[in-house]
Amino acid sequence: MKLRLVPVLLTSLLTAALLFGGWFLYREFVIQEPLQKIVAGYEGVNRSQITINRDQVTLKLDLKPGTKMRELVQYVSTEGKSAINGRTLKLDVDQHSSEMLDDYWNKAMFSVAEAMESGKYTLIPSTLDGLKESHTEYKGVVATTEIDDSNVYVSLSSGKDSKFIILPRKPAKMGVWNNA
Question: CA 64 to CA 96: how far, in whole Å?
Fold first, then answer.
């Protein structure tokens, strides 16, 4: 029995196209599109782009000032549970910051880092509000903080400008140094 090369190659190519095409269509229309609708339907989301990998779902978001980050994460995690399916959810938020908001955050960052390191999360809102009271140039800044099991969310806004900061509650631990 002699195998002909052309039919074998065509059959292999057709099988590969069906398998990978089916996998792509499943991923696009059963997983990614419903998750895209969930995220886009949340109030405060201007645009979103979703990337799904084997162990991580990345949401690249463009948010309106004042959007509640914790509520957004909770909403996406519960409504999109079947699409996320045990993967970690990572947020990448586009910043529409101004020089004033960047300066505000830079002045608050040391105190916020100290509160995060010590686990005294209640100091973060008082630090941000205290900065507004001690500097007159920050009177128009609205600072909100939210917390969940894994992150602290800080939102700064002033008019149309906004800055969103996501601080992990469990930071990466440093290992032992070789030259210590």
Answer: 9
pLDDT at 28: 82
Q: What is the pTM of this model?
A: 0.80
User: CA–CA distance from 19 to each of 29, 33, 50, 85 (Å)?
Assistant: 15, 20, 23, 22
Fold topology of 5-93: GMP Synthetase; Chain A, domain 3 (3.30.300)
Over the stretch 116-164, which tens digit does the pLDDT of each residue have?
A: 999 899 999 999 999 888 888 888 899 999 999 989 999 999 989 999 9
